[in-house]
Amino acid sequence: MSQPTAILDALNIDPENEVPLYRQIYDGLRKGILNSQLVPGTRLPPSRTLARELRVGRNTVVAAYEQLMAEGYLDSRVGAGTHVSEIPPDSLLEVGIEERVAKDKTPARNLSKRGITLSTLKRAAPFFEKGAAPAFHSGLPSLELFPHQIWARLLSRRARQPQSRLFDYQLGAGFPALRVAIATYLGAARGVSCGPQNIIVTTGAQGALDLATRMVLDPGDTVWMEDPGYLGARGAFHGADANIVPVPVDAEGMNPKQMPPNTPDPRLIYLTPSHQYPLGVTMSLTRRLSMLKFAHRTGSWILEDDYDSEFRFSGRPLSSLQGMDQSGSVLYMGTLAKTLFPALRIGYLVVPDHLVDSFERALRITGQNPPAIVQATLADFMDEGHFTAHIRRMRSIYAERQEILLEGLDQHLKGYLTPARPEGGMQLAAFLPKHMDDVKLRAYLRRHNMYTAALSPYYMGENAQPGLYVGFAGVPEQKIRAGTERLVALLDAYKE
Fold first, then answer.
1. How many helices (H) and strands (E) does the chain have?
2. The CATH fold of domain 144-388
3. For the residues 136-145, what does the mean pLDDT come to?
């Protein structure tokens, strides 16, 4: 086969194809080189000649040649024309070897142990394309009542200010005004002892969990975790190859006294003391002081997850465990996504002074920074009082929605579902009879477009309690009433 014929055979140009013509020429020549149809030293026709043969513009051929030369597939010298490179690029050599290996002998390229663990953990929430989530999806705030117009105005204002702080990489631990706003809020509302310099802004609560886990855990380290407990935290600890020890939860929160003797001391203790996830209990003062004393004595870290404590319906929100800490044992984390809207993807860590620089450097490496313009808009939203006003409004509405849900469960499902009665939050646990399989029940309900979570997967120990995790914050009042009645009908028709 002559060289011109081989070159033309390597090209199959289709003017109707959506792929640009220069890219079709590039792809064809590159493929011919990789499969040795065009061997090293093969001279390519001048761009004008090839353009005439292909009936395309000369600049189209020039663009394809230039791209191939930039990637090392072609050489061009004055007076010698354009040739296939004598020494192909490394990627060409690798591809050539790979294509010659039989399929059944192709070396396996597997995920890492951590990659396999992370990819097999299931915790993603369903995505709903139309309207609000159906009853009774947990973890969702009231999206229809968020002040969208105010947010849009603030975001638009920031977008019209092309400041370098918003459009470059230099954010460090977070947008400075947002760190100030978060520190001010946490000090006043949650009793957190911190300044703006202690705030590390992350991509949501899961970003805070991931960063904290990377920074304080080595593979094999022991983590004490509430049982039942938050699946997202369990996933982060599994991904870190930690030794997770489930610690039973009772009416006062985590209770280490119920653990077997000789349980190893932890490197990290994960707690949701203000509103335990998922049971909703509040850790007693005695238990809080005991945990702080234990962490100080053993040199353990406490990771305090304060995920939705803004929504406490009786009295003021409880002060944080971090605010009681005198030994620098507590890393405090929270999220603004549940308070405002999930797509915000902004969370935070509060870390001791001596760790700020280390966490900030790690943040740059792990790429956990939320977009600067969103951080700046959130800072304005908080500074102008919209954040606290929204919380006050939602606290009242969520309290009403919880009461409607409890009334419906008591009226229609007493004896079948026994709801917990937390003093706040956005969802509640409702317990089923011991013999029931809540995972199968959840699947049945989802087939009928009712989205609850099964309670038993939150447990790691042997005493898993079946139940449903029922969200109410993001469900309008009329949908809660209708949803409760529909839940009754579905349960009446349910057969294991």
1. 17, 15
2. Aspartate Aminotransferase; domain 2 (3.40.640)
3. 88
